[in-house]
């Protein structure tokens, strides 16, 4: 047992979830003593979100800029990524709104929660009091340092977009700055890796506090969230990705069987980095043009995160309903646009889903960011579907784009897929 838990973060989170559930049910008074664990974990994440988000968005724009230099192929790849991630996000939000996901939870922020929310209150007041003009003006920070000091995600996004666009046109002159941003990104990615090691602590505190305060009913809501997420990812893979393969003349079942070993590795490790070389080799053996594979697959790992988009869409509505927050059409649009931008280039960041969700919620502070603690426990289970869904999307994207470009060898693919 000790050997299993040693270095196995997933097992540690599972144990923390079970212990927290038991503590909340049988020792509810313990909730006051362990609540600080979750607060500490969330503050550490929020501390690193701003700089990490700046690096992710800036480097994502630089990557997209270099992608465009390959011409029509790069442009079509970018278009495909945007359409698919937007479709996934939109479907998730519509389904969550139709089902009223999260209603009945009744999350009430504590004093500590309110303190965490206060950092974002200024932006919310500007948005309500000054309307569209106030919102547009609030997007531009007085100074770049001011945006980071206040943790204003939208201002950080605007600054990152400007930096990325300018650097992409500077060529060699901007190379030292690009390397600096890459180094800062690596630094904060490593920092996030250290912070994520504390996830079992945060999960134990969150599960104990949530169960003690809201009972098993909330656990049922969280289980429902997770089940719905698995279902939506499955339906998206079968319907959207499988449908796309059929249009391209590829049998989806044979295609899935071809990648079965890779899918198993991704599902058990909740990460797809280890199978990247195998994925690219197998796609070439399927008859996908080498240039298409070389451009689309690496770019897709950062820009084509369909399952993450589904997660963000469900999580936004779940937390809004759970906290009794009424979202206007403008606020929903702001959240979705922020989610689409912040999720680009997020792959490879430890605990990236929680990081991106925290950054997204910060764009509309009406939703208490502390409500994220409710999803901490189930996020690690949702990570299985998220990893498999993202990987499936990046298996299918090169095939569809190659077919679009007429650079797919159907004869070679049919022969490869017929093999057991």
Task: Give a verbal description of the structure.
The chain has 420 residues and is mainly alpha-helical. It has a single domain, classed as Proton glutamate symport protein, CATH 1.10.3860. It has 20 helices and no strands. It has helices at 2-5, 9-26, 31-68, 72-99, 111-118, 121-138, 144-150, 153-168, 175-196, 199-214, 216-247, 252-258, 260-269, 276-285, 290-303, 306-322, 329-342, 352-361, 373-404, 410-418. Helix 10 crosses helix 19 (373-404). The two termini are 37 Å apart. The relative contact order is 0.18.
Layout of secondary structure:
Blueprint: H1 2-5, H2 9-26, H3 31-68, H4 72-99, H5 111-118, H6 121-138, H7 144-150, H8 153-168, H9 175-196, H10 199-214, H11 216-247, H12 252-258, H13 260-269, H14 276-285, H15 290-303, H16 306-322, H17 329-342, H18 352-361, H19 373-404, H20 410-418
State the CATH class. Mainly Alpha
Sheet with the most strands, sense and barrel status: none
Radius of gyration: 22 Å
The run of helices and strands is HHHHHHHHHHHHHHHHHHHH
Number of domains: 1
Instruction: Work out the helix count.
Output: 20
CATH names the topology as: Proton glutamate symport protein
Average pLDDT rating: 79
Number of strands: 0
> What structural class do the secondary elements suggest?
mainly alpha
Low-pLDDT segments: 116-131
CATH architecture assignment: Orthogonal Bundle
Give the overall shape. globular
Quick structural summary:
The protein is mainly alpha-helical and 420 residues long.
Give structural attributes:
Proton glutamate symport protein; 420 residues; mainly alpha; 20 helices; 79% helix
